[in-house]
Amino acid sequence: MIPSIHDRGSETIGLIHYLYGPGTKEEHIDPHLVAAFDPLTPDPGRDPKTTYEQLQRLLDQPVNALPAGKRPEKHVWHLSVRAAPEDPVLSDEDWAAIARRVVAATGIAPDGDEAACRWAAVRHADDHIHIIATLVRDDGRRPRLHNEARRAQAECRRIEADYDLRRVPAGDGTAAKRPSSAERHKAEREGRDRTAREELRETVRRAVAGAGSEEEFLDRLKGAGLLVRTKVLPSGDLQGYKVALPDDRNGDNEPVYYAGSTLAPDLSLPRIRKRFSDSTPNQGADTTPSAPALSGPATARRRTATAAWQAMLVIDRGGDAEVAAHIAAAGEVLDALAKTSAAHTRAELREAAFVFERATRSHVQAERGHDGALRRAARDLVHSGPALGRGEDCATTAMAIDMLFFLVTATAHWHAKKNHAQQAAAARQAAEHLRAAYQAAAGIPLAVLYQRGRHLSQPLRQRQAAYLRHAVPELAEQALAEPGWSALAATLADAEAAGHDPAGLLAEAAKRRELATADSITDVLVWRLRRMADLPADATSMPVRASTADPGNRRVTHPLAGRDDQPRRAR
């Protein structure tokens, strides 16, 4: 059950017209009162002789009794309470009891207070009610509404338990501000999928992903087509910024600007500055000696997979502040990947980044400076440019998504252990979008590997199966039974032909967490092995001889010698 406090208004009659009206899409059915401050309150929905104006005058009477100069400008309080889709349909009597509990908990009408604010609860749908109140008590004083949103949330948690309803994760005050009803209605009228506030928050997040300075951040905002206003101190230092969509205008045809701090707590300029000062995104290349110069989207995606693996080690074993920094930087990586990926994966990646944003903030203060690898990965993704939907770009996108899926899953586990309910739920939801994006990206490259594996000679396939049984005996039979075994066999043959020890590579890859719970063991091992062995992710670029090389002539090396990820050293 979700309570939403809407923006305060100045006209009671306007809200009454909306609550009893047909709705913006004719969705209001049988509007009527279920409860009010006085049981004898007239109901325009059920009594044809009662007008909206009569209800308005009754609610506004304490306001109008004040001298004109002492009346609050915005005296209309509006809260909606909505049940979950899977909850049973509650009766009017149930909703009336819920309304009384909510107005008591928020301070609108405390139990036993005969001079409390006047209010009415209107139901015009099965799953929710609206409560309208006027913010002047019968004794002429103002109500005490400090933290009324948090108190409404707490009361709804108790209501869920009492009525055996779905338990909604409790908030902790770190979420971004929700769009108001006015903003949502405006978006609907203008045909937008999201409100201006949500579009701006997403665009600003993408602009900050991997950025190395204020100048670069502001340039990205302008490059994304936003209107940007900055406030500069007399010293010349930047104090803050505001952004607007060019086509989002108010009644005076002026752009509607939002400060970064009103979009999300971590998008204020001081919070953004900490990313620049405490990490090292300016180093565009990996610091390992064997890392090649950044050459394109495929290379950036390989490095993203490596950085995600390193971050998983931190989330498994690091301190809270360090983990929080890596989770926040993982959000930057998801934003950058969504921004630069091909059309067939972009929508799901965008949704993954959008919902994961909630998982990046909690009351655990991030200790920046430990998240440099992920921030460099985000920067590389942005600077490498858009990826193609085919070839190595597409295949390495699948490789990166595969590892990011496990990083996001690890994030969900960490938040759950900390009792961060909303953050854990957001991470789990992001993982489902990543799963869908992976399926879109991995289909073609895995099909190519599957065909290559099918055409391996029988002795070669048997040898790869022996490697598998030796390296991961507890998972071998499950992997051999999967449809993806042929793709894994082809990858093992490619690694062997390239001079690697397949059994050693398998043993190293299998040490990495979450393998036993993966949807497909063979898929996970394919991408890990191809990255660890520096094999092309797109097997169409591999020469035919790579899968049929004579193993007797190969040069066996340590499976990770000279590679760009060193899990042994990290542990």
What's the domain count? 3
Kindly report the average pLDDT value. 88
Beta content: 5-15%
**Radius of gyration, rounded?**
29 Å
Order of helices and strands: EHEHEHEEHHHHEEEHHHHHHHHHHHHHH
Count of beta strands: 8
What's the arrangement of secondary structure elements?
Blueprint: E1 2-5, H1 12-20, E2 32-36, H2 52-64, E3 76-82, H3 92-106, E4 119-125, E5 128-134, H4 148-163, H5 181-189, H6 196-208, H7 214-223, E6 227-232, E7 238-244, E8 258-259, H8 260-263, H9 269-278, H10 297-317, H11 320-340, H12 343-356, H13 372-384, H14 391-417, H15 421-454, H16 458-471, H17 476-481, H18 485-497, H19 502-510, H20 521-532, H21 567-570
Antiparallel strand pairs: 1-3, 2-4, 3-5, 4-5, 6-7, 7-8
Write up this protein:
The chain is of the alpha+beta class. It folds into three domains: 162 residues, BirA Bifunctional Protein, domain 2; 79 residues, no CATH class; 274 residues, no CATH class. Helix content is 50%, strand content 8%. Strands 1-3-5-4-2 form a five-stranded antiparallel β-sheet, sandwiched between helices. It has a three-stranded antiparallel β-sheet with strand order 6-7-8. Helix 3 runs antiparallel to helix 4, helix 10 packs antiparallel against helix 11 and helix 19 packs across helix 20. The longest helix has 34 residues. The radius of gyration is 29 Å and the shape is elongated. The two termini are 44 Å apart.
In short:
This protein is α+β, with helices and mostly antiparallel strands and 571 residues long. The protein contains 21 helices and 8 strands.
Question: Which features would summarize this protein structure in a list?
Answer:
571 residues, alpha+beta, BirA Bifunctional Protein, domain 2, 3 domains, 5-stranded antiparallel beta sheet, 3-stranded antiparallel beta sheet, 8% strand, elongated
